[in-house]
Amino acid sequence: MSKLTLLQDGQISEIAAIFSGERVRIPTSELPAAFAWELKPQGLCQGNVCVPVPDSSALAKHDGVDLQAFADLLGRPLALDLEERMAALGTAAAVRDGQLATLEAPDFTLPDLEGKLHSLSEHRGKKVLLIAYASW
């Protein structure tokens, strides 16, 4: 068993993972701590909310839950770098739609050129111009 660096909801964590070819499996026992979901007979559950699992053999095997199948079932995009043993689990489209309807940007914190941290929430109620740049 190896470690997978996971980025989700703005948080970075390391979780146990099994790498097999192009697939990554997460031990079923790790689901509640890593994702706040657990696999039950009625489906994939978070508290009282359960998502039915139409093909349980595609989601779970004896050694754990397939990370891509898990993301697909919840409608969450997954970016996976097997070589670096990293994964980024995005927000489901339904959640993003709800956030877009409010027209309120999610909070984030970034450093300026001098390294001082600035959070978007510090400027709530003010007009803010954000400029993004990518070197590629």
What distinguishing features does this structure have?
three-stranded antiparallel beta sheet; globular; seven-stranded mixed beta sheet; alpha+beta; 136 residues
Number of helices: 4
The number of strands is 12
Percent strand equals 35-45%
Shape: globular
Content-based structural category:
alpha+beta
Write out the strand line-up for the largest beta sheet, numbering strands in chain order: 7-8-3-2-1-10-9
Tell me the span between the first and last alpha carbons: 35 Å
Global Rg:
18 Å
Helix content: 10-25%
> Which residue ranges are poorly predicted, with pLDDT under 50 across at least 5 consecutive positions?
none
Can you write the helix and strand succession as a string?
EEEHEEEHEEHEEHEE
Q: How does the major sheet shape up? A: 7 strands, mixed
Would you tell me the overall average pLDDT?
88
Write the layout of secondary structure elements.
Layout: E1 2-8, E2 11-20, E3 23-26, H1 31-35, E4 38-40, E5 43-46, E6 49-51, H2 56-59, E7 60-61, E8 64-66, H3 67-74, E9 78-81, E10 86-89, H4 93-102, E11 109-111, E12 117-119
Parallel strand pairs: 1-10
Antiparallel strand pairs: 1-2, 2-3, 3-8, 4-5, 5-6, 7-8, 9-10, 11-12
Can you give a write-up of this model?
The protein is of the alpha+beta class. It has a domain at 2-94. It is 20% helix and 37% strand. It contains 4 helices and 12 strands. The protein has helices at 31-35, 56-59, 67-74, 93-102; strands spanning 2-8, 11-20, 23-26, 38-40, 43-46, 49-51, 60-61, 64-66, 78-81, 86-89, 109-111, 117-119. The strands form 3 sheets. It has a 7-stranded mixed beta sheet with strand order 7-8-3-2-1-10-9. It is globular. The model has no long low-confidence stretch (mean pLDDT 88).
